[in-house]
Structures are given as C-alpha cells and as structure tokens.
Design a protein that fits this description.
The protein is an alpha+beta fold. It has 2 domains: 76 residues, Phosphorylase Kinase, domain 1 (2-Layer Sandwich), CATH 3.30.200; 135 residues, Orthogonal Bundle (Transferase(Phosphotransferase), domain 1), CATH 1.10.510.
C-alpha cells in the first residue's frame, strides 16, 4: 500500500461526517479520507489497506494510499463526487431514473463478481449495502468500505467468523452457521436490488405484492418489466 504523504498536514482535509473527510493532494487530485485513530481500531487500517492495496477494478473504489501521524491514520481513496447510493435512494432531493437504476445494479454486480472470482482467492465483502456503494462523477457505481472483508483461499468453500454486518442485510444461513462465503454477499446485494426497485429501506421489504406495488413511486411508472 502506497504511502501518500507523511502527515495529514500535507493534505487539506475538510470534515464531512463520521470518520470521512474530503481533501486535495498537493498535485490537485481530489480525494476522500477515512480517519482512523490508533485506539484499538488500527486493525481496521491494516485489514482494509491490505485487502484493497492490490485490488483494482472500475467498480471498486480505488485505494490511493495512506498517511500516518503518530497514533492516527488516514486511508486515502479516490473521491466519488456523487456520494453514496443511500443518499439517492432515501434522500428527498435526489431522484434516480430507471436507466440509472439499471446501470447501478449492473456496476454493483460487476464489482461483486470481480471480488468473488479474484485469482488469489475469493474476497467476501460482508457489508454490501447502499451506504457502501458510491457514485462517481460519471455516475458509475463502485463498491467501498472493506473493513469487514474476508479473503478465502482458492480451495476454501467458506471461513468461519462471528456474525458481523448490518441488520437487514445479513443472510439467515450466516446467522445460523457463521460460515462466511460469497453467497452471503449475493444475499446482501439482492436486498440492495430490491431497494433500488422500491426506494424502500430494508426493513420494509418483507411485504408481498406484485411489481407495480413494489416499484418506487418516484419512477412514475417509467420502468421496464
């Protein structure tokens, strides 16, 4: 993983929310920074850094490098100017067209397929959800936030782990047997697809009904079946 600069002072960071900052490198490149304090969370820095440092795909947020200063770190990523999918699905001021919904779904599927078929071993994301799908300036969707990711050996069918992830996206099999594998990501992505179609949060998707009842009313009936 490349060290971008030695101290946070060498980059102009502006606070956004949570642990996320926007910044500009000395060469003018706009970036996003995830702030990590070494208070027991340095494992996050190591895991996400090593998981992404050598992985490149158009539908994955690119890790540029990192900076460190005493007991704090910044993971430095390409900036996705249009925020995350959750803001577009559930924000009142933003509306996705049907073609944008379809393209986001395809982009997400491509990124997930790349992770699951990675030659050095299947990379299981474990936290696929709208906030972890970012939208770049060209409105391409990119998977992000690999803090919970697990890398399986080529000959492994699963790895065992404590149940981690976001409520509403964790699949029943994983909750039952604690087996981490690609199918768990597929389940989570399926929930995201339902949210793309309906514009509803995960907890409201258990209700039955046909496609006309599921479709996001903001589409005004402009969708393909």
């Amino acid at each position: 993983m490349k060290k971008c600069f030695s101290t946070p002072a060498e980059c102009q960071f502006v606070y956004v929310k949570g642990k996320v900052y926007k910044g500009v490198l000395s060469n003018g490149q706009r970036i996003a920074g995830k702030h990590i304090i070494n208070d027991g969370h340095v494992e996050t820095f190591v895991r996400e850094g090593t998981s992404l440092s050598h992985v490149r795909h158009p539908n994955l947020v690119r890790l540029i490098g990192y900076c460190e200063n005493h007991d704090e770190y910044f993971l430095v990523y390409e900036l996705c100017h249009n925020g995350n999918l959750s803001e577009w699905l559930f924000g009142k001021a933003k509306v996705l067209s049907w073609i944008q919904i379809v393209e986001i779904a395809i982009d997400g599927a491509r990124g997930l397929w790349f992770l699951h078929t990675y030659p050095e071993g299947c990379i299981v994301h474990r936290d696929i959800k709208p906030t972890n799908i970012l939208i770049d300036a060209n409105f391409r969707a990119k998977l992000s936030d690999f803090v919970l990711s697990k890398v399986m050996e080529v000959d492994q069918s699963h790895v065992s782990s404590e149940v981690r992830g976001t409520f509403g996206y964790v699949d029943p099999e994983y909750r039952k047997n604690h087996h981490v594998n690609a199918s768990g990501d597929v389940y989570r992505f399926g929930v995201v697809l339902l949210q793309l179609l309906s514009g509803q949060r995960a907890r409201f998707l258990a209700r039955g009904g046909d496609i006309t009842q599921l479709a996001d009313p903001k589409l005004n009936g402009e969708y393909w079946i």
